[in-house]
Amino acid sequence: MPTVTVIQPTITEEKSRIIRCAAYCRVSSDSADQLNSFMAQLKYYENFLADSKTETLINVYADDGISGTNTKKREEFNRMIEECMAGYIDMVITKSISRFARNTLDCLKYIRLLKEKNIPVFFEKENINTLTMTSEFMIALYGSFAQAVSESISKNVSWGKEKAYREGKVAFQYKHLLGYKKSDDGKPEIVPDEAETVRMIFKMYLDGYTLLSIAQSLMKQNRLTALGKNVWTKGEVQRILKNEKYMGDALLQKTYTADFLTKKVKKNHGEVEQFYVKESHEAIIPKEQWEAAQLELERRDSYMQKLGLTFYGYGSEINPFSCRVVCGKCGAVCGKKSWKSRGVEFWQCNNRSKNHGVKGCASENLPHENLLKGFITAWNQIVAEREQYLPKWEKKKKEGNPLQKLRAEQMIELTLQPPLTKMLPELGQMVLERVIVHGKEIMVIRFLDGTEIKVKI
Q1: Mean pLDDT for the chain?
Q2: Are 303 and 432 in contact (CB under 8 A)?
Q3: What stretches of 49-136 show up as alpha helix (H) in DSSP?
Q4: Which of 74, 96, 118, 221 is the most interior residue, by most CB within 10 Å?
C-alpha cells in the first residue's frame, strides 16, 4: 500500500492577527427621516465590533443622500474600494445588498473584485459572507431584487410627478429662472430688477437686435443672469426668449429620465407626455409679445437656412445691412468689402470669386454709398405715401398674427417721423428684411412688414 505523509503548512496565520473591518452605509435621500437613519447607522457600526477580540472596525464609509443605482457619485464607496485594493481593509460589512448596490452588475463586479483580494463582504440582513459562498447565484438573486425595488421606486417617483403635472402643479427651478423667486406662500413672485432685464431682452430682440448684440449690451450694462453672473451668451438670451413661463404659462415634463440606473436625463421630443398649464402664474411679458418673439425666432432661423448662414447679421446696430444684402442673380448673400488704397467700400456677391479666382457669379459690385441712398430713397417714399399704406397696416393690426401686428404698429409709428437725410442704423435693423441687388444702381428694398420698393440710383 502507498505511504501518505502529511506535510504541515509552513505559512500560518498568526493567532493574534486582528481582522481590519470597514463598514459601509447609505441612505437614499436628503429628507430629515433619512438623515436620522444615516446617523443611526453610523452609531450602530461604531459599536458593532466594539467587544470583538478578532475583529476591529477601522473606518465607517458613508454616503448620504446618494442613489444606489450606480457608483459614480458615491465618493465614500469608491474610496472604500480603493483602500481595500491598497491592502488597508480585510473585510467589508454592510446592512444589506440593497445598501451595497441596487444595480446587479455593480454588485457582482465589486464582490468579484474584492474576492480576488481575498476580502469578503458580509451582508447582515441576508447573512451572506461572499468568501464562504460556492456560487454567486444568491448574490445575483438578491441583487436583482434590490434593482427591481429601485426601479419600482423610480416609477413611483415618476408617477407622483406625472400626477402633479396633471393637476397643474408647476415646480419652478428658481435658481435657473431669471425674474422670479419663491414667495412666502410658496408661489412664484416677480423680482422687479430681474424682470426689467427680461423685458429688455424681448424688446431689443423685436427691435432687430441679434442674440449676440443683446448679450453684449447686457454685459455692458452689468445685468446679471439667473445665476448672478455678468456673463451672457447667445444661448442664454435665446433660452429666455423661448421660455413660456415669462408669459405666465408652463410646459411641464420638458425632460425625462431615460434610464433609472444611469439617471440619464434627455430632452422630451415626444417620447413621453407633456402637460401645458395656462396662466399658472403672473406673467412678465404680455402673451402677444412673447408669441411675436417666437415667430421672429422662426423667421430668422428660416432666413438663415435659406441663405446658408450660420448667424443672423453681425453688429446690426452699427451695420443693419450685414447678411441682409442678397445677389439678384444667384441668390447668395453679399459681403461688405473695401479698397483701402482707393477709399472705396462696396458689396460683392459671395459667389462672385470662388475656386481660386474663377468667377461663380457675374453680378456687379454695389457701391456702399448707393446702398445707403437706396434705403433712404425707399424709406422716404413710404413716408411720403404713408396714407396709401395705412389701410394695409391697420388691417394687419386687426387680423394678422402677433408678429405681423407688431410690424404694422412699428411702421405706423415710425413713418410719422420726418423723411431721412442720412442713414439711421437703428431704423434699418428694426424694419429691413433684405436688399436684393440687381447691379450697381438697381435694387429692391424689402421691409419686414412685407412692403417692397424698387429703387434706381
Answers
A1: 82
A2: no
A3: 75-85, 97-100, 104-116
A4: 74
DSSP 3-state assignment of 123? strand
Q: Bridge-partner residues for 454, per DSSP?
A: 444
Total number of residues shown for the chain: 457
Distance spanning both ends of the chain, measured CA to CA: 124
- CB contact at 8 A, 216 and 210: no
SS3 content of the chain, % helix, strand, coil (to 5): 40, 20, 40
- pLDDT band, very low/low/confident/very high, at 115 (cuts 50, 70, 90): confident
Q: pTM of the prediction?
A: 0.65
Q: In what order do the strands lie in the sheet with 442-447?
A: 325-327, 432-437, 442-447, 452-456
Which is nearest to 443 in space by CA: 355, 368, 351?
368
pLDDT for the residue numbered 152:
53
Q: Which residues contact 378 (CB under 8 A, 6 or more apart)?
A: 445, 447, 453, 455
Q: Which of 282, 215, 221, 218 is nearest to 246 (CA)?
A: 282
Distance separating alpha carbons of residues 193 and 216, to the nearest angstrom: 18
Which set of grid coordinates corresponds to residue 1?
A: 500500500
